[in-house]
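User: quick one
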Amino acid sequence: MAQASKKMITDVFVEGARKGWNICAMSTIPNVMMAFIIIKALNITGALGALGNLFEPLMVLVGLPGEGAAVIMGAIMSMGGAVGIVMGLFSEGILTGEHIAILAPAIYLCGSTIQYAGRILGVIGTRGNLYPIMFAICIANSFMAMFVMNLFFV
Amino acid sequence: MSATDDQKVTLGNYLALAFAVVFFSGLLQSSEWYGVFDFTTLNGTFGSMADGVMFRGKGGSGARDGFLFALTLVPTCMFALGMINVLEHYGALKAARKLLSPLLRPLMGLPGSAGLAMIGSLQNTDTGAGLTKNLIEDGELNQEEAEIFTAFQFSAGATIVNFFSSGAVLFTLTNADGSMAVPTSIGLTVAIMFVFKIIGANILRLVLKAQGKKVNTQTKAA
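Assistant: Done. Structure below.
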């Protein structure tokens, strides 16, 4: 501890910034790029519009266009990817700043759960019959958070 | 580092935590001198290249646009994690653990000894999972407590690092007229995530209670 406290504040900052760089290079950039490719593919095939129509009735409850469902689906696979999808939809003019405010906490509350099933539930040794409940809680958390965030902008 | 260690938390640690809260809350977001204590203000903006367009350009799509966009995330992510490292160095998380541990029982029915694993889980999913496994093996958490705690960790896993490495950047988006696009703050978003993580854990608590009652009735019937 004594040794740690001798470090210069600038060195500590740089160490953290380096961690940030590694996360960006190894995770954020590839994930965001993948999200943009998926958005492009969904867009030119018309699947994005279809997805929007399909989820419109559900997403309207939380103040979002139907396409917002693509963000939540993407989030379950990867948080960084979902942020990429948000940015893609923002550039396309489908999502506004208010929509992003509603989505921001929701992305993380159900984020990367497919990956975390192994890294959290698997490691801790959660009973198999609780897996669906754990996933359901994350999705419920997301919807409740979107509902609450939406109240700020109504 | 044992799961139950209790290092002394100093005034400096609390100051670091208070600074963390103010710095990321957006309370002091301003171009006045006190903006120096605000993350978004210091994070700044990219300059425009021509006709007010950022280096990412306008009208791009697909992998190439995604790559350039992802590059715009890099400084925010490096700045945020650099600051978090500094705040952690000055004991902000130790102070947070000290403040949160006594609240674990009333909020989620968990013992205070889960405090370190809880703070660990906010930074890294694997640290949280590993420390939780240790707590179970040491008999600090029973099965039900471990499951409630797992529900807390599973929703918004590694909240701090994940949010600050990708989500924080959403708050730097600007509209075509240069105004900030997202009308909320990093602080409010983090608070909402934290509240719903606790609510999620309590949903599981209720589910387990209901399951327990069902098992009891079945046993009685048998």
